[in-house]
Amino acid sequence: MVSRDTPWPDGTPCWADLMTRDPEAARTFYRELFGWDLQVGGEETGSYAMANLGGKSVAGIGQMDSMTPVWTTYLASGDADATAAAIKKAGGTLLQEPFDVMEYGRMLVASDTTGGVFGVWQAKQHTGFELANETGADLWNELLCRDTAAAKDFYADAFGYTYSDMGGSDYDYWLFEVDGRPAGGIGALPESVPAQVPSHWRTYFGVDDCDASVAKVQELGGSVLQPPMDMEYGRYALVVDPQGAAFCV
């Protein structure tokens, strides 16, 4: 478990939120799945909901009518404008220029050179995850793409990442490090994944029982893209909520 009430180090995945067409239904789904206490903001926030566990924020749910429902990973920055410049210099594309989110922080949305979309968060009153690496909270964030070399170059240039090779003879996977400490992953999309699936960031949520959680996802109207499977570090599955947003447990 990690509990934090100060800004995360630059480049660290510091927040994840779901933008969806039906936030009310999404709140019901994730409340039942993870036991989240969801506090819905006023109209000035676009009715953005903060998900809490034990009084600590773990994720957000907001409304966006013009896009496919998606979980977005945000990387921490002490200066969003400087990070925006670094992203452009590294060859990335700004999808939303830096803007203030009231008194809570400053953010932007960008895509890397492989097409992976991510957010950047400069903390003010909202510092990001207050609880992580715990049941019901963010456990891991990774970019899956078709050109890991290009992705590594981009994030090294834009965020200063260093890397450790965690792949094998049949899989290309790298830990990215912030100040020498593992902070997330960059991996190759398997050849079996259809070509139309773009590079994307995945959000993993901790659960006590992967199989039971997958059954609960289906009971609540979601579906399974990849059934539970074991790997060296644990057991995981890739699932989709009822509105179509994918995430891992």
Describe this structure as you would to a colleague.
This protein is an alpha+beta fold and 249 residues long. The protein is 18% helix and 44% strand. It contains four helices and 18 strands. The strands form four sheets. An eight-stranded mixed beta sheet has the order 3-4-5-2-6-9-8-7. A five-stranded mixed beta sheet has the order 12-13-14-11-15, covered by helices on one side. Strands 16-17-18 form a three-stranded antiparallel beta sheet, with helices on one face. A hairpin with a 2-residue loop joins strand 4 and strand 5 (56-63). Helix 2 (80-89) packs antiparallel against helix 3 (148-159).
Summary, kept brief:
The chain is an alpha+beta fold and 249 residues long. Helices cover 18% and strands 44% of the residues. Helix 2 runs antiparallel to helix 3 (148-159).
Summarize this structure as a short list of keywords or feature phrases.
249 residues, alpha+beta, five-stranded mixed β-sheet
**Helical segment tally?**
4
Helical content class: 10-25%
* Biggest sheet overview: 8 strands, mixed
- Reading the helices and strands in chain order gives EEHEEEEHEEEEEHEEEEHEEE
Q: How many strands? A: 18
The average pLDDT is 95
Shape, per Cα inertia axes: globular
Structure classification: alpha+beta
Span between termini: 16 Å
Per DSSP, what share of the residues sits in E-state strands of 2 or more residues?
35-45%
Tell me the Rg in angstroms. Answer: 17 Å
Strand order across the largest sheet? 3-4-5-2-6-9-8-7
Detail the poorly predicted runs: none
